[in-house]
Amino acid sequence: xxxxxxxxRQAAGESGSSNVFSMFEQSQIQEYKEAxxxxxxxxxxxxxxxxxxxxxxSMGQLNTKNEELDAMIKEASGPINFTVFLTMFGExxxxxxxxxxxxxxxxxxxxxxxxxxxxxxLQELLTTQCDRFSAEEIKNMWAAFPPDVAGNVDYKNICYxxxxxxxxxx
Length: 170
Hints:
- The chain is mainly alpha-helical and 170 residues long.
- It is 59% helix and 4% strand.
- It contains 9 helices and 2 strands, in the order ααααααβααβα.
- The protein has helices at 2-15, 26-39, 49-58, 66-74, 82-94, 99-108, 119-128, 135-144, 155-164, and strands spanning 116-118, 152-154.
- Helix 6 (99-108) packs antiparallel against helix 9.
């Protein structure tokens, strides 16, 4: 009975992510397939706890706790075949929230709907509120999203990069 349940979970995971291949370019899919093959140490098409332990050991991380491995495996909804693996990466790369949700959060800080926020204001918020940015994170942010000559930061571009992983071509 257990194998049928596992097959149903696997099928449900695959059908729920049938569009996952359209999220990536063919070259990216090939790279993920190579990574999957490296991790799938026993070559059975499913990444197991033993596969993770073996690949981590091959990279020098020898004493990985069972709890850590269990937590990694539990991130998937079922057995981790290539489609589930790709879906997991897609979800991580997409960010936790859709672009419109992140954009709406920024719009609260932009009552005049200019599409930008003053660098000083954004930096103050990011370094004093909630999950505070470190000086290094702020430096990286300005390197990735430099303000214009007037000191404005294009938050629409930030939202796009967070959710799509690359800058819009203008």
